[in-house]
Amino acid sequence: MNILDLKTRSAVVTGAAGAIGKAIAKRLLDSGAAVCLWDINEEAVKQSCAELTESGPVEWAVVDICDPLAVSVGLARVIENVGRIDILVNNAGVSGAQVPLEEYDLSEWRRVIESNLTGAFVCSQAVIGAMRAGGYGRIVNVASVAGKEGSPRLSAYSAAKAGMIAMTKSLGKELAMSPVLVNCVTPGPTRSRMTAETPKEQLALMLSKAPMQRMMEPHEVAAMVAWLCTEECSYTTGAVHDLSGGRSSY
Predict the structure, then answer these.
(1) Is 136 a catalytic site residue?
(2) What GO molecular function annotations does the UniProt record carry, in alphabetical order (predicted)?
(3) Which of 104, 136, 157, 235 is catalytic?
């Protein structure tokens, strides 16, 4: 593992109870950051925190990322405990129902958009002021290759991730003259609960599109995310970093 320097940095990782979120948190901890794990599932996030304790200064909180008040309270706690917020990784999200669009339930559509896109908006909006005041900020959005290409039977998820990509580009431009950089990654199928719940036929179709012909591991997502959080990432903002095993050419 390449050693990155995130000493003195404070990070929040949303959706940290899942495989990708936990891997990102571990990589940030291994690089010297203090990390707060946010998730809606109390038991799962507590377990993730317990598993990461030996890696560095880590704490957890149950936060509904779609609720501005809950996010504000969670952020205030981080700043009170650590003194600053430097890094936000918007990783939380759900894949939602896997059905044709004409059969998609409106309430499920709204749930998927809220969890993936609105939550990232609420969290990003909350941290910008503190990051700007602290003189350093890195916001990394975990989108998906589905947001680039659109995945059949995953219209809400694809739309939400496409929105996250566009929001990254907009916010990156808005903050380009500030110390806050905004980027996103677009993973292909990654070994996680989400892919475990994907029908085998659909997963096989997804994997067949990648020239590398394999599923990505969570630590591979974490490696790119961690670099985007460092000072070495200094002239990249509003950018989309592909992690699809060669599937996407842009």
Answers:
(1) no
(2) 3-oxoacyl-[acyl-carrier-protein] reductase (NADPH) activity
(3) 157
As to burial, measured by CB atoms within 10 angstroms (0-12 exposed, 13-18 middle, 19+ buried), residue 217 is middle
User: Is the Cα torsion angle 225, 144, 78, 18 positive or negative in sign?
Assistant: negative
pTM for this prediction: 0.93
Residue 64, both tokens: 């509904």
Helix axes 42-52, 19-30, angle to 10 degrees: 30
Q: For residue 14, list its beta bridge partners.
A: 38
Q: Rounded to a whole number, what is the distance in angstroms from the first to the last CA of the chain?
A: 27
Residue 144 and residue 93: Cα distance in Å, rounded? Answer: 11
Q: CB–CB of 92/38 below 8 Å? A: yes
DSSP per residue, 77-88: HHHHHHS---EE
How far apart, in whole angstroms, are the C-alpha atoms of residue 131 and residue 108?
A: 34
CA dihedral of 81, 85, 88, 93, whole degrees rounded to 10: 40
- Other beta carbons within 10 angstroms of residue 76's beta carbon come to 13
- Residue 183's DSSP bridge partners are 140, 239
Amino acid identity of residue 193, one-letter, is R
Domains of the chain: 10-235 (3.40.50.720)
Q: Which tens digit of pLDDT belongs to each residue from 63-117?
A: 999 999 999 999 999 999 999 999 999 999 999 999 999 999 999 999 999 999 9
